[in-house]
């Protein structure tokens, strides 16, 4: 049984990668950093080729996760090349993302074992089913967000805290220390907001006398200082700025200078009223049941709820800032669901309880099907690039200008399939068709180029333009539209089908509305 659950977790995380292989702008720093480490290596002479010197982003971010991901992916890329699974660079993006998804899925598999030990086998099954039928966490497990990198060590820490006998009243001294050390490391290197989860956890452990102040201070100092040394060492090198501690810089820039509010301010309650329901789906009501029926769950949920309240104090709110609480709420929900399904089946109440759990899981699946399909249609830049590479694959000289929207919705460096760098050190050319051809196309991402300037630029042969500016481009008589790429707008109820009332039309009751986003243009 436990093997089946582990395979299910891995399969769901991987399926999301394969179904939506492209990336968005939030992921691009870490994705491109991974690309650069893979392609150029980490020697000082390679650094000038790195993308972050051209497109640094609003604040510097850490390379620690990307370097580890690239190194972890390398042997797999070699293997995939050897067995002819790699056709061009875009396949490398899928491999890198699969490695990340697998690492995060393994975190959840480990956590499931701890749940099984502390709350019993049925709760661990429901924990996995709830996690796999949700959308956000499985979909993002393989996406190179800083928060995704942070999720793995946070889950390892949770594993250490939860993994104990069902009647144990205190976590083991060493488990608690290791968990605090992991969370300190994560807060220092990956995401500063983890400190808001760590603080209530430490406070709870001190109040319950699970640890002593002396030991907290010792772990904080030793682990905090060595993590700071690590991130300053690695990131000062890659950014060529001394000394650079990216998370501290981000904290200073976004929180102390209040820059994050420029991205938008939401009311205090938004994490509880919008983001948490979206992340948890039906695990939210189930977690309330879990909290009511089990004192251990109340103790478990105290730190994440304190975290949510603390982080609600920041004006700018995004679901990914609080993604770390999902595993804990899923444990609570699994406990609640276990209680519901173990009521006496003979009674009406017992049967209703059982049905409600089945119904809530089915509801999760339905919501996830729609969210997944919408997300798959939400990367027009990636689809446009794939189409472009396909259409002009036989040409030798191409200089394509890529609009901002295309760059933000999937046109990552891995999709520059007909331009250097070619990973000859990882894949020999006879295993890798596009390496053998070694074309030197130019994928030009220069921002703020006026449409007229684009027409006048003699070396530019093609453009992937936004629909809004394409009209202006086509007016100039220089361009021919070659292909149009749509993007997701919304779901709409299909009233015609409802009138017909056919059973087999059930799947078409809701239809996806798309609209043109990008146009591939060729110069006449
Ligand atoms: C927990 O239960 C096990 C077996 O049922 C028992 O051996 C152990 O002493 C119990 N521990 C505590 C802390 O009650
Ligand atoms: C990209 O396009 C712009 C605008 O046409 C041009 O100024 C720039 O030189 C191009 N970049 C490269 C690398 O060719």
What does this structure look like?
The protein has helices at residues 2-19, 25-40, 64-82, 89-119, 121-133, 136-140, 146-162, 173-189, 195-207, 213-239, 246-256, 270-280, 283-293, 295-311, 326-341, 348-376, 380-391, 404-408, 433-437, 451-456, 467-475, 495-500; strands spanning 399-402, 442-444, 462-466, 479-493, 510-523. It is globular, with a radius of gyration of 25 Å. The chain folds into 2 domains: 2-376, no CATH class; 380-523, D-Maltodextrin-Binding Protein, domain 2 (3-Layer(aba) Sandwich), CATH 3.40.190. A 5-stranded mixed sheet has the order 2-1-3-5-4. It contains 22 helices and 5 strands. Helix 5 (121-133) packs across helix 15 (326-341), helix 8 (173-189) runs antiparallel to helix 9 (195-207) and helix 14 packs antiparallel against helix 15. The mean pLDDT is 93. It is 60% helix and 8% strand. By secondary structure, the chain is α/β, with parallel strands linked by helices. The structure holds 2-acetamido-2-deoxy-beta-D-glucopyranose (2 copies). One 2-acetamido-2-deoxy-beta-D-glucopyranose is lined by residues 401, 442, 444, 446, 449, 453-454, 457, 460.
């Amino acid at each position: 049984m436990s093997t089946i659950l582990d395979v299910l977790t891995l399969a769901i995380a991987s399926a999301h990668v394969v179904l939506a292989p492209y990336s968005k702008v939030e992921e691009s720093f870490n994705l491109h950093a991974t690309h650069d480490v893979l392609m150029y290596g980490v020697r000082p002479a390679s650094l000038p080729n790195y993308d972050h010197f051209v497109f640094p982003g609003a604040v510097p971010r850490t390379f620690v996760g990307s370097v580890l991901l690239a190194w972890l992916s390398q042997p797999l890329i070699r293997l995939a090349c050897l067995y002819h699974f790699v056709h061009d660079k875009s396949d490398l993006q899928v491999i890198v993302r699969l490695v990340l998804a697998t690492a995060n899925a393994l975190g959840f598999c480990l956590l499931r074992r701890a749940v099984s030990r502390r709350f019993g086998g049925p709760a661990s099954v429901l924990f996995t089913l709830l996690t796999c039928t949700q959308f956000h966490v499985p979909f993002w497990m393989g996406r190179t967000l800083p928060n995704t990198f942070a999720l793995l060590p946070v889950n390892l820490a949770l594993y250490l805290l939860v993994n104990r006998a069902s009647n144990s009243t205190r976590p083991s001294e060493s488990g608690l220390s290791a968990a605090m050390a992991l969370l300190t490391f994560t807060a220092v290197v990956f995401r500063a907001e983890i400190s808001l989860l760590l603080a209530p956890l430490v406070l709870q452990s001190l109040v319950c006398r699970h640890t002593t102040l002396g030991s907290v201070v010792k772990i904080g100092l030793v682990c905090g200082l060595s993590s700071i040394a690590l991130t300053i060492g690695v990131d000062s090198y890659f950014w060529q700025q001394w000394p650079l501690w990216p998370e501290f810089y981000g904290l200073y820039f976004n929180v102390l200078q209040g820059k994050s509010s420029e991205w938008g301010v939401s009311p205090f309650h938004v994490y509880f009223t919008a983001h948490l329901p979206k992340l948890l789906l039906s695990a939210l009501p189930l977690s309330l049941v879990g909290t009511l029926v089990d004192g251990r769950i109340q103790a478990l949920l105290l730190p994440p709820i304190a975290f949510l309240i603390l982080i609600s104090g920041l004006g700018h709110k995004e679901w990914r800032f609080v993604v770390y609480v999902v595993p804990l709420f899923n444990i609570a929900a699994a406990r609640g669901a276990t209680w519901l399904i173990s009521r006496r089946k003979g009674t009406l109440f017992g049967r209703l309880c059982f049905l409600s759990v089945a119904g809530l899981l089915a509801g999760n699946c339905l919501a996830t099907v729609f969210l997944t399909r919408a997300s798959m249609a939400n990367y027009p830049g990636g689809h446009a690039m794939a189409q472009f590479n396909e259409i002009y694959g036989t040409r030798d000289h191409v200089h394509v200008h890529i609009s901002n929207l295309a760059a933000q919705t999937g046109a990552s460096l891995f999709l520059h399939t007909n331009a250097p760098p070619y990973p000859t050190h990882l894949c020999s050319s006879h295993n890798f068709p596009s390496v053998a051809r070694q074309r030197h196309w130019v994928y030009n991402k220069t921002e703020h180029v006026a449409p007229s300037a684009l027409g006048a630029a003699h070396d530019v042969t093609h453009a992937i333009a936004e629909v809004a500016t394409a009209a202006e481009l086509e007016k100039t008589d220089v361009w021919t539209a070659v292909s149009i790429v749509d993007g997701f707008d919304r779901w709409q109820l299909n009233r015609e089908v409802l009138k017909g009332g056919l059973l087999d039309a059930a799947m078409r009751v809701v239809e996806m509305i798309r609209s043109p986003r990008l146009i591939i243009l060729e110069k006449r």
